[in-house]
Design goal:
heterodimer; A: mainly alpha; 9 helices; B: mainly alpha; Arc Repressor Mutant, subunit A; 8 helices; about 65% helix
């Protein structure tokens, strides 16, 4: 077929594009994913019964801010990677900075604590399950973000998949924190981060397989 | 400037101006051809196939263009992605010059030496279900209006539009799996 005719075929009867289409799909992915995560947390894991007492503690809000900041950076990275030719900007550096700040905070907490308390600050009571539960709670968000990317045109598939996993992991961690009793900085800097990295690596692996076009 | 001209044509195309959109695609074609020919120097017979695949990809993904973004960056990212995808599928990298270069040189050169692609659109269309094939046949190939196509197929107008949209995406998938 001649390319001229191919061009005519593509241009014939072309319809206007709704400029809000991408924003709508994004909103739908976040809403659907969040509802799924909340259902898993509230239904299977149960909310932390001490939640109403914990909210007055500053560390509660440090934890929420940590997860929320990473989630916002991750979501921004997903949106950028969804379109061809848009650079990632400061997202990776931003994520690195938030993690570094938490690690410095965690190191300070560990160094200033009495030696016999350090192990508890690091492992808490739920370290063995925390990363896996975060990955579980993040699963609906992860699926939703991959679906979002499938409707767009990411050109760096491994990176886009990883970003979808990281955004899901950090937003999932925020939801999971409604169940989780842990507030110590060393715990958050280790086990929460590991939980976020499970869907991130899964995304890097699945990206080239699932979101190619 | 070329970038400005093509960008404003595409932006008009995105709000439904079909003649501006046609001009955009046909002026872009020569640049795509030159881009592809430089990188597929050893497979000249495949150049026009990839040019058409790129045009289809650009058309199918046009909703991802952000009007605030340089057009060259957007088109070239798509072109590079499809080129690498093609080479990876063949795992035959001997014609690969430098598809990962980062300088946006797409609009620097043009190539008007058109050939024909080797795929047979009629045959590819045959593989699609009627609810996609007929809307594409009537609206995109015969040039009927959406309303006309709806009448002839007994489908609703929105089903015709969805059929075209999904059908062209499916077509891109078929072309991808030919090689």
């Amino acid at each position: 077929m001649k390319t001229e005719d191919w061009v005519s075929m593509l241009a014939n009867g072309v319809e206007a594009i709704d400029p809000k289409r991408m924003a709508r799909r994004h909103l739908l992915a976040i809403t659907g994913g969040l509802l799924g995560s909340l259902a898993l947390t509230g239904g299977i894991l149960q909310l932390n019964p001490a939640l109403s007492h914990v909210v007055v503690e500053p560390m509660f809000w440090v934890r929420e801010a940590y997860c929320a900041a990473l989630a916002l950076l991750g979501l921004a990275a997903v949106i950028r990677l969804a379109r061809p030719g848009i650079r990632l900007g400061f997202m990776p550096a931003g994520i690195g900075t938030v993690v570094m700040v938490m690690w410095i905070f965690a190191a300070t907490v560990l160094l200033t604590a009495p030696a016999q308390n350090r192990s508890h600050l690091f492992f808490g009571t739920t370290a063995a399950v925390c990363p896996f539960l975060i990955a579980l709670v993040a699963a609906p968000l992860f699926i939703a973000f991959l679906w979002f990317l499938r409707g767009l045109a990411p050109t760096r598939l491994r990176l886009a998949g990883a970003a979808a996993g990281f955004a899901a992991g950090s937003l999932g961690a925020l939801v999971y924190s409604l169940h989780c009793p842990e507030l110590a900085a060393p715990f958050l800097g280790t086990w929460y981060l590991l939980g976020m990295l499970i869907p991130t690596s899964l995304g890097a692996w699945l990206g080239p397989r699932l979101i190619c076009w | 400037m070329k970038e400005e001209r093509l960008r404003s044509l595409l932006i008009r195309g995105l709000v439904g101006d079909a003649s501006a959109y046609r001009t955009f695609l046909s002026e872009l074609t020569a640049h795509l051809r030159s881009f592809v020919r430089r990188r597929l120097a050893r497979q000249p017979e495949e150049v026009e196939d990839l040019v058409q695949e790129l045009l289809l990809a650009i058309h199918n993904q046009r909703h991802t263009y952000d009007p605030a973004q340089p057009l060259t960056a957007w088109v070239q990212a798509i072109a590079r992605y499809k080129l690498i995808d093609l080479l990876r599928r063949r795992s035959r990298t001997n014609g690969l010059h430098d598809p990962l270069d980062d300088d946006y040189d797409l609009l620097v050169a043009a190539d008007g030496d058109a050939a024909e692609a080797r795929y047979d659109l009629a045959k590819l269309l045959q593989q699609l279900p009627d609810r996609q094939r007929l809307p594409i046949l009537y609206v995109k190939i015969e040039g009927s209006s959406v309303a006309d196509a709806a009448k002839r197929t007994g489908m609703s107008e929105s089903a015709v539009k969805v059929g075209i949209h999904r059908g062209l995406k499916a077509l891109a998938g078929r072309i991808r799996s030919i090689e």
